[in-house]
Structure prediction request, 818 residues.
Amino acid sequence: MSSTRAQSISTYTSERVTRILQDDLHVRIPGARAIPVEFGVLNLRLETSDDNVLNYHSIEDRALRATTYCEKHLAKIRESIEAENIITTLDEEHSHLLQCSFRPQMPKDVVVQRVCQLLSRLPATPVELGNGWDAHCSTLSDDHFLLGTPSSPRSWGHLKATNFVATNTIRLAIQIECAGEYYWAGIFMSYINLVAELLDATLNISAAAERPPTAEELVLQAFLWTSWQRGVMLHLSYLLGGHLRIGYDFSRNRALSLEIPRTLHKMFQGGSSSFHKLPSYLCLWAFESIRSDRAAVMLDFRGFAERYGDIFGTRAPRCVSARDGDLQCSGDSPGACNRFIGKKIEDQSAHATSCSGSCSRLFWNEESYKGCSGARAVTIEGSDDILQYCTASSNTMAVSHVWSHGQGGRPENPPPLKRDIKHRLPGNRNKALCGTGLNKCLHERYKQISTRFGCDSYWMDTPCIPQDHQLRSEAIQNINAVFANSKFTLICDMDLMQFDVTNLTTALRESILAALLVCDWNVRAWTLLEAMRGRHNTQILCKNEQVISLRETLEDVHRHGSLALAGLFATAQHLLPAQPPPPGSKSSPYLVNRAKGYVSLEEAACLLSHRHASRPGDEVIIWSLLCGETVQETAIDLWRQQPNQSVLTAFLVSSCPRIQSPWKKAHRGFGWAPRRPNMPALRQLPLRETYFADDGARSDLGLFTTQGLKAAWLVAHMKGALSSLLALSAGSSTFVETDSLLRQIAFRFLKKYAWGALLQATENLPTDQPVWYRGNADGVLLVVVGSQDRRKWHWRGVYEWDSLIPLPVFTREEICLV
Prediction:
């Protein structure tokens, strides 16, 4: 990247890293009973009483404790006699948040070398804290800046606080290098969340006093924000390293439950292009899919934009067709982009690079296709004038592509000539089964690549999924097996095919990964499924039929490239191998499903939340195939087959439409359940008012019963529009604005109900702490339910409560949703 973190006296040095390692090195004391904590984090959530009882603090108590620690930090800053010592004094106070006793398994000089190399891959300074820093910098004295010359700008990038690498950041990097086989992600997450709480408290100090922040508060804000950003990047790099080393297990996504400073949430939810200069060729809906990802919220996209721009920076947009040329889409939904909906693409309009575009078409040998059992693949042996088939096997190459790039179609024979119309069958039966075939040059391309990799066949939807309903259903039922058993999966996307990989460098690999994240292939639902099943060996088709390994590309960037860019792949489980069962272990159903890459219903919906399929109804089919081997064509069937008959309650807090057909007996008791994993592509709501599905991490479980979903929630009762609109005494509010907002909710959601309630998902801990929605929401996202008898509650929707208006009182209560 153009600007990475270099060693200097004002940032970090190898000598300073050595000193920190030496000072915190574990020393064995003969006869000592207690073993020092290797990497301990101050905990604002709970305390242990004298009789060893864990006491969890309320949100209010945690905020008060965080403010107290921030005041200590500020006091130390004020006590600094020399202005140039402010950062070192602040760093010393901040270092008390961690207690370390390092136990390296390699020589200390090797640890120091690796830590310095890791720190050098961080951005030089973090992305600007979006709360008016241009104006703030003008109020700070020169002592707060690194000014090489009198004319050096007094800006965010020259602040001492944003350039200095904190001791705790170095400690985190040291522990990553000393981690060995132990899994430290949960502890690392605790430290990062602690810094987030302190940052939130610091931002609230001046806001609560209704005054501009002081110089000391500005320095602390910049210092904590810098520590938080760098901590997140190091944490995500550690997670990605684990995925590459042992395989991906989606249950480890709990380590991505990072707390976002609530005060900052609003300023970073301003849409796809906020704070980032993005090339016009980039589809903003594709960018929105990674910007809102669990591994990317509030992260630094400057390196991503730079590497993407290196290849596509001068290209014109191609999202929306206009009279004066194509335009970049708004990023509000796939329906706003013609790359997804609206642009007419002719099937088989794509050709291989060496083809003039006039090659002939190959059609199926129907007898050969129907003569095979199971999943069919195109054999590379035999005649080149017709598509011959064999049963797909471990020697099959699986091709994954998007139809909008011109390789789509069906294998059946072409429609009859007009002179042969009299021989057609009655009705539309012939018309329905007319195919497009496959361009001969494309067949030759995949035949040659298959041969190069030692395969005897290739699978691709165009020649292998016919239009006949029964044959199509059979082929779809076998998709999981085709990709899971294939020798490798070949990603074929027009943007990725622009890369000449004759001379592969880390910088070029970074550009390939940046393009992969936002290419059309990566934002489709079917290709997600294909990638999830074929991720044991994924290859990328590049220019001139060159092929490179995705895993090798990721490993190179993880070891040598930008941490900000590599971290974006920490949740890209469809691009990383699944974790196999431990050697010699009994194959429990969980381990078998993990090795196959199956995920929970909640996780599957989270992966599909920003991905769509062109064919109506396919999103539910794909949802089911991500969870298991059986195709479910309706949401109610999928929910009824849910293992353990349970669901994480925070997952339900979204805008996704529900199964609300009480007149259908099979649907009763499931009115709360989403009927699709994503929002309709042509939805009319703007992005700002759309709440996508979250994975529900850290929340309590709800259980399916014959009556409905029974679960514990944080509940605030109210009366519906059929009754008076005052809150019940148990949850009444003394605030006029709160009562007014409750009335608005009742009129909007509860017109036919006598009673209403607001719900928040609760943590799966013995606390009454809510699980905050992590997506686009400035305020608190609440569930609204209605009832006639206060025993059975009906899902009415979600509502974003204004963060400036006090919430009503919530208490923990089990309710039944029907």
